[in-house]
Amino acid sequence: MSKQRVVIIGAGPAGLTAAYILVTRYGIVSTILESDSIVGGISRTVERDGWRFDIGGHRFFTKVKEVEALWHEILPDEDFMLRPRMSRIYYKGKYYDYPLKAWNALKNLGLWEAFLSVMSYVWVRLNPPKDQTTLEGWIVSRFGWRLYNHFFKTYNEKLWGVPVNKLPADFAAQRIKNLSLSSAVMNALLPKRNQKKITSLIEEFQYPKFGPGMMWERCRDLIEARGCQVVMNSRVVGIRYENGRAIAVIAQDKEDTRVEYPCDQLISSMPISQLLKAMDPPAPKEIFQAADDLRYRDFVTVALVVPEKYSFPDNWIYVHSKEVQVGRIQNFGSWSPHMVKEGRTCLGLEFFVFEGDKTWTKPDAELIEQGKRELEILGLVEASKVEAGYVVRMPKAYPFYDEHYKANVAKIVQWLNASVPNVHPVGRNGMHRYNNQDHSMYTAMLTSENIARGTHHDVWSVNVEEIYHEENKKKT
Questions:
Q1: Closest to 396 measured CA to CA, from 21, 12, 140, 46
Q2: What angle do CA 242, 243, 249 make, to 5 degrees?
Q3: Each residue's pLDDT expressed in tens, for the chain with a length of 476 residues
């Protein structure tokens, strides 16, 4: 075993992947500090009274072969299910198939509105928005103003809590890259379904039968069996550094007892703003201010148990209606029948919030009643048919992309590289990147190789939605 002392902050996909790669590939044992009582981060599976909830929905689909191989190395094949992907958009009392199906869209929009939408798209191809650096401009340039107002504006404003024209286009480039009206229509009309090039349009995916938390609980067990220590309910409150190196991490447990963990290398998946604020001695004022300016969007799931007859085949429904606050509704029974009980399903109503706001601080009972009302307004389930309800709050679910986030992150990274080069941010919150689980894992895999083998992978250039991996191999 290696003598390197590695401390990892966070037992989510990035942190546990780093620990797994280090110990299985290179014999490097690490200590993992997790502030919560559950592993998996946002990819956890929450269990209440035998019901299982996936926080946000996690399709196991990736273009990175190394990540897919690792999924199946951690979990045996028999624990995976191949699930059909089905999702729809609820708008003005109608359900639109997504991926787009031409006849369904025409029927719902009506011939006249469909014609106007196509003309609107033609217009922006000839007269594109002048500013495509905003999310609004980016979407309009690819779908036209009418479809933007129908299908994108309301949902994105629910998701982010600010006007779409105040958001940078980075979110779209990350999540719906390559998708436009023309590509969506071609996907609808061509006979070959289940395309793999545009992640937003995949039609089947892998899924652990008991939810994504099954993956990370198994990963924890495997690394502990090899000597790693996973310390739960242990919140990092300080990172001591001297002479250009981080030398120790200070963590605090539920009883406010502080424990110091010496380190030679530190991998962090905690929010990069909190990482920076934990540095001791403190970072310069302007760097501290950059960390203070980073924001997050938070997440509340209201899970409601209903009779199976109120189930629907979708994994989730996007709710573009202004008459309700809910942004998306998951059907956990459609993700996996092992998540629910016989004769019942569980619907997860997702509310996008800011921690501490009116919705976040509502008592659970009020949120459950609100969820019942909104299901009835949407015509999905009568409020009286809901048999039980549960509330799960997830802070810092989404790194917030405002006009300053990129410059703020760059300042922090530049300071970390110069002052504590043995501190390695990875993962969604660790890098303040609104990316999927496979991106978090891949940054951790490359970081682990950098530590163990002295390679120089630039994890900040990783984007699993791009094909640069294949291009790099060709160049090599």
A1: 12
A2: 30
A3: 567 899 999 999 999 999 999 999 999 999 999 999 999 999 999 999 999 999 888 888 888 999 999 999 999 999 999 988 888 999 888 888 876 666 777 788 898 998 998 899 999 999 999 988 899 999 899 889 998 898 888 888 999 998 999 888 877 665 555 555 666 555 555 554 444 454 444 578 899 999 999 999 999 999 999 999 999 999 999 999 999 999 999 999 999 999 999 999 999 999 999 999 999 999 999 999 999 999 999 999 999 999 999 998 899 999 998 899 999 999 999 999 999 999 999 999 999 999 999 999 999 999 999 999 999 999 999 999 999 999 999 999 999 988 899 999 999 999 999 999 999 999 999 999 988 899 999 999 999 999 999 999 999 988 755 533 333 344 33
Q: Nearest CA to 25 among 339, 452, 365?
A: 452
Residues 6+ apart with CB under 8 A from 290: 276, 407, 408, 409, 411, 412
The span from the CA of 111 to the CA of 129, in Å, is: 26
For residue 399, whether the previous peptide bond is cis, meaning omega lies within 30 degrees of 0, is no
Residue environment code for 401-429, b if the CB has 16+ CB neighbours within 10 A, otherwise e: bbeebeebbebbbebbeebbebbbbbbbb
Alpha carbon distance, N-terminus to C-terminus of the chain? 32
358-364: Cβ within 8 A, 24+ apart? 359/300, 359/325, 360/298, 360/300, 360/393, 364/389, 364/390, 364/391
Q: How far, in Å, are 317, 333, 346 from residue 311 at the CA level? A: 12, 8, 8
**Cβ–Cβ under 8 Å, residues 87 and 96:** no
| 297 within 8 A of 42, measured Cβ to Cβ | no
244 backbone dihedrals φ, ψ, rounded to 5°: 75, 20
Q: What is the Cα–Cα distance from 269 to 10, expressed in whole angstroms?
A: 5
pTM of the entire predicted model? 0.89
419: amino acid identity, one letter: S
CA distance 325 to 316: 16
Contact 181, 143 (CB under 8 A): yes
DSSP secondary structure letter of residue 168: B
Count CB atoms within 10 A of the CB of residue 270.
23
